[in-house]
Amino acid sequence: MQIPLVDLRWQHRLVQDELNAIFQRILADPYADDLTYARELEPMLAAYFGVPEGCAITVQSGTSAQFLALKALGIGPGDEVITVPNSDLPTTSSISHTGATFRLADVEAATHNLDPALIEAAITPSTRAVVPVHMFGRPADMTRIRELAHARGLLVIEDATLALGAEHRGVKAGLWGDAAFFSFAPRKVLGGFSNGGLVLTRDPDVAHRVRLLRGYGQDPSIMEKPIHERHQQNGMAGIAEGYNFKLDGIQAAVVLTKFPYLHAWGELRQAVAERYAAGLIDVPGVTLPAPIGEDRHAWRNYVILVPPAKRDAIRHYLAQNGVTTSVMYAPPIHLQPVYRHLGLGEGSFPVVEALADSLLALPIYPGMTEEQVDYVVEKLREAFLLDTKL
Length: 390
Ligand SMILES: Cc1ncc(COP(=O)(O)O)c(C=O)c1O
Known about the structure:
There is one protein chain. The protein starts with 8 loop residues before the first helix and ends in a 5-residue tail after the last helix. Helix content is 39%, strand content 11%. The protein has 2 domains: 9-105 and 112-260, Type I PLP-dependent aspartate aminotransferase-like (Major domain) (Aspartate Aminotransferase, domain 2), CATH 3.40.640.10; 262-388, Aspartate Aminotransferase, domain 1 (Alpha-Beta Complex), CATH 3.90.1150. The chain is of the alpha/beta class. The protein is globular, with a radius of gyration of 22 Å. The model has no long low-confidence stretch (mean pLDDT 96). The protein has a 7-stranded mixed sheet with strand order 1-9-8-5-4-2-3, with helices on both faces. A two-stranded antiparallel ribbon has the order 6-7. A two-stranded antiparallel ribbon has the order 10-11. Pyridoxal-5'-phosphate binds at residues 61-63, 87-88, 90-91, 133, 159, 161-162, 183, 185, 195, 197.
């Protein structure tokens, strides 16, 4: 049996007729432009989140979504932004690209999420914002994070790239902050064939600035008109120096097609997670994801902890048996070569470092069968039984 970390074929089979129809529309429409499907997708996303129309802005990637959200909220040179060291590199690089500086704070061992108790110590007179990451799709403790941040006059910008569909206290991830950003990269919870992202805010002024910056800095009220209307216009109005960060038209069409399945596919991920938990609960040496309580996990990843000394051998055994695993995101950000100059050596963030040595992401995706989950469980058990030889 071959089980990739994420297998998209099942969902592609499910939507292929709808996709074919949408591609035919693109091919047959003389006025199809890069925003044709974004114009349909964005109101759908705004309605899903219950934000004002115009406040869900599709962009080129999660990385550009974060960059634009920070810029639109006025983050720039001289500012500091607090985030976590166990995220993907773009979480910190997007902060740096605005000219601001990131400051790292450790996470809670049980959830892999920003530890609210450590925010205070990371605040300096230059701190402007906090970027919690809903790691692996589990919502961070947004109640405390938002309370703490807002009490200190800090903005909250959620990294919800892994958490589309997650909820904390009945409120969707992405609605807790002053803004949030999501990713539509192919192997995220909901993805295109290639990159995509979303900025979410409740604030129409912030949304306007994001729109302005994603579309070259041209006045969005002209820039976002259908192409034939734009061409009829007497020129454009360049009111800022922006970027070309619009969502690619094909990806908008793909995400639009898949979006109605978001909830159902989330339920399937949940069922995979539950089956893993039931199958692995009595395997000594395996730590399962902590219970989620009343919150809703998006299960972008199913991440267990295994003894660090055995991890390579376990991965090797699983790979030999056709099961792909991953150790995302390791090594932690502060130990990556690009940040060596910061002098944040080993021991700087002990919880994140311990997690990075132990974590193991197992395959999870909608369409993963019970047989496939059971097979991964069986091979993991075997790996532990071979323990002495490993
Ligand atoms: C936690 C996290 N933040 C940000 C990003 C950036 O998203 P994208 O790949 O869409 O640019 C990623 C994705 O890979 C991620 O995993």
